[in-house]
Amino acid sequence: MRCARVLLMISVLYVDDEPGLLEIGRIFLERGGQFSVDIVTSAPAALTLLTTKNYDAIVSDYQMPGMDGIEFLKNVRNSGNTIPFILFTGRGREEIVIQAINSGADFYLQKGGEPVAQFAELTHKIKIAVERKRADNALKQNEYRLKTLVSFYQMTSGPLKDMMIFAVEQAVEITASSIGYLAFVSDDESLLTMYAWSSLAMKECYICEKPIEYPLNTTGLWGEAVRQRRPIITNDYAAENPLKKGYPKGHVPIIRHMNIPVFDGTRIVMVAGVGNKTSDYDDVDVHELSVLMNGLWNVIKERRAEEELVKRNEELRVAYVQIAASEEELRSQYEQLAQSERQIRESEGKYRTLVENVIDIIYRADSEGTIIFVTPSILPLIGYDNIDEIIGHPITSFWADPEKRDDLIARMKEKGFVKDYEVIILKRDGTGIPVSISSHFYYDDTGRIVGVEGIIHDITDRKKAEEELRKSEERYRNVVEDQSEFISRFLPDGTHVFVNEAYCRYFGLKREEILGHRFRPKIPTDDQERLKQFFASLTPDHPVDNIEHRIIMPDGNIRWQRWSDRAIFAPSGTIAEYQSVGQDITERKLAENQIRSAFEQLTASEEELKRQYDALTESERALRLSENRLLMAQDIGHIGYWEYSFETGKIWGSAESLHIYGFPSVSGSYPIADIEACVEDRERVQQAFADFITGRKEYDIKITVNPHDGSSQRVVHSIARLEKDAKGNPFRVVGVIQDITERKQMEIAARESEEKYRSSIDAFPDVISVVDREFKVILANTSLLTWLRRLGQSDDIIGKPILEAFPFLSPSVLDEYRTVFLKGTIMVTEESSPVGDAEIVTETRKIPIKAHGDVVAVIAVIRDITEHKQGEEFTQKTPHQLSTLPSKR
């Protein structure tokens, strides 16, 4: 959790008779990862679904067949369900809006307009309604807890049995249980005395009618809270357990059970338990029951202290009454009087010892608020040397806010007493000390109020502890919940003891569905053995390692994850639990495969082009060697032969050459004008022929041809030789042509493939480079260049050796690349490198690119995991804080 709040996953029931709109709404709401949406096409179906599943909010259309949105809303409200309800409809009439609000709708939202803005507004309304509902529930829970604690204080003057029974009933209600009990623990913690049972337990279990004593060593599971000195939860009481010792005869059956010890300092004084909740008990139930019972014990302690004080006062009063007996009786009973006086002195001595050594402060003030008595324990608290400096002074002169005295008196007049009324009292040097005051009026023999007396308790340590606890919990929760990685802690049997919000959100589960359960995601069969061997490899000498594997999500999709797992060992050497930090790497895996595939396709295309080019070169060389070879090449490679006669002005062509130009595939002669009519860039070709005739250039040209028969445009490669007569005059030109259309198309496709490949890696967020067999960088994406600039490094790396391009890397990186080129397998490494004044940690995946079975290049996908490693180090250093961090509901 950040300094702001983090919302839990919100479950939404979306009702509309238009399936298409339902699907669009679900896609939009769920794309942010904060909503889980179920959709139905009718209100009756939605009402049926609400009987089997709970939701955080309902979104409903108005106009639907069978039952419209208003009737649906009324049915929901009439069932007692106060779930947030949003009417989302195309109808915009004012009377519908009024009817919806009067029927209990939280918001009314009209369809239409721009979809993105419309659904964004719907998302906002849902969040507001759910947050408001959750805040209301939390407030009610706090009010209920406060009301219960106030009730305890109000019952202090009544029988202890009544207060204990009331506490048990409240414990049953606050934990949603069926039965409950409360037992006192003896001073040596060897005996449990059952004191109170809930009403249902009293009806179904006859042994509940009077207290029953149980030696601790004879108790089963319910005694573990004392033996282990911690709360004990048993959510499957029927399961085999060596700690169980059976029910007493006539005991009510138990399905689930939870009990807690109540401490007074380091001693356990009570055990409180509840049972048969319809769902599993969890840490929240432990917290609620602990707060309730600790409050009860504080009331009992104060009650006992007051009873002891009253008892002592009564003893003194009786003694003084005896002294005030008739004088004649005192004379005749002189020895008895002497004995009585000795008893009085002993009683006063005991009382004085109690007063002088009590830790809390006992005080008495008259009706004007003047202090007339106070125990010496006040002196070190407020820095005075003598009681006489305090006696006779107004009590408000020692209060930081004297006006609160009026509020204290008003509360006492209303209830007759106050409990734990908090104020700040001033030390001699003016500094404030937080205290709680429990006071009541005292009366004379006529029943007239003559003053106030009570107990003052220093709560400085408690206030500091509360503040430190609040800051500590906030600090550790902020750190853990702000992690985007999944964080969990689990026992060797798979039972989870901690998960953060990111973990729950990823698996689509609530904390209570994971904590205390053996939650294990489904693993593909091919990965199971490897995962088993991975956990078996964690030892005290090698407690931490990383693994990448697949999981099968609840919807059947397969995702990739990367986990850093740490085994935590007990002193005996056995594994006590595991601590894991993970992340989803599916997109990265897919991108790596796409990049590798694209690069291999590009490499294959280049190889094919090279092969064809070499073949063409060889063919052209053969053509130049001899005319016979030209004819052979014509038969084998579809190469045409042609001759031009200066005498006739015609071109004779072989069947293949005429076919290329779109003429009938029969050798023969055609006027040169007919041939030139098929040439697209005629002037360029005529100039090349003229330069050839005059001897300025060789005739070696590529020509774009629009065939005579209207077939697809072609690209041909033509070369020629000039022949002369005995006098040196040219009389004929002989040449060959070859259709290279397919090769040209492949060259274009290769360029497009390379451009697409470059675009894809530039769009990839991780930094990527490609290294050839000479260990030089031949390609880098935009993310890599940006990252280098951010680190203050040069981005001029293309064509440079690896260590020159990345000077912060260790020379051992070259050995890693050699291994990948040699073995042809993926290698994943982590490097810690100094860059300027900082230390960065990178993870590099070196992926081999193969052509014809050989590794021709290596793609390096580099991720800066510095913050991730810092998060791992933090969670490894704070296992205790993680284990004690309370889960959010």
Structural account:
This protein has 889 residues and is an alpha+beta fold. Strands 8-7-6-11-10-9 form a 6-stranded antiparallel beta sheet. Strands 24-23-22-27-26-25 form a 6-stranded antiparallel beta sheet, with helices on both faces. It has a 5-stranded parallel beta sheet with strand order 2-1-3-4-5, sandwiched between helices. The radius of gyration is 45 Å and the shape is elongated. It starts with 9 loop residues before the first strand and ends in a 5-residue tail after the last helix.
What's this model, at a glance?
With 889 residues, the chain is α+β, with helices and mostly antiparallel strands. The protein is 43% helix and 26% strand. A six-stranded antiparallel sheet has the order 8-7-6-11-10-9. Strands 24-23-22-27-26-25 form a six-stranded antiparallel sheet, sandwiched between helices.
Index terms:
6-stranded antiparallel sheet; 32 strands; 28 helices; 889 residues; disordered N terminus; elongated; alpha+beta
Number of strands: 32
Q: How many helical stretches?
A: 28
Determine the fraction of residues in helical runs and give it as a percent range. Answer: 40-55%
Low-confidence stretches: 1-7, 885-889
Biggest sheet details: 6 strands, antiparallel
Class by alpha and beta content: alpha+beta
Question: Please, what is the average pLDDT?
Answer: 83
Shape: elongated
State the separation between the terminal residues, measured CA to CA: 13 Å
Strand order of the largest sheet: 8-7-6-11-10-9
Strand content: 25-35%
**Cα Rg:** 45 Å
Helix and strand topology:
Layout: E1 10-15, H1 19-30, E2 35-40, H2 43-50, E3 57-60, H3 69-78, E4 85-89, H4 94-102, E5 107-110, H5 115-154, H6 160-174, E6 179-185, E7 191-197, H7 199-204, E8 212-215, H8 224-227, E9 232-234, E10 257-264, E11 267-275, H9 283-323, H10 327-332, H11 334-357, E12 361-366, E13 371-374, H12 378-382, H13 404-415, E14 417-426, E15 432-443, E16 449-458, H14 460-482, E17 486-490, E18 496-499, H15 501-507, H16 511-514, H17 525-536, E19 544-552, E20 558-569, E21 575-584, H18 586-625, H19 627-637, E22 639-645, E23 650-653, H20 655-660, E24 668-671, H21 672-676, H22 682-693, E25 700-705, E26 714-724, E27 730-739, H23 741-763, E28 767-772, E29 777-780, H24 782-790, H25 802-805, H26 812-823, E30 827-835, E31 838-851, E32 854-864, H27 866-877, H28 879-884
Helix pairs in contact: 5-6, 5-9, 6-9, 9-11, 18-19, 18-23
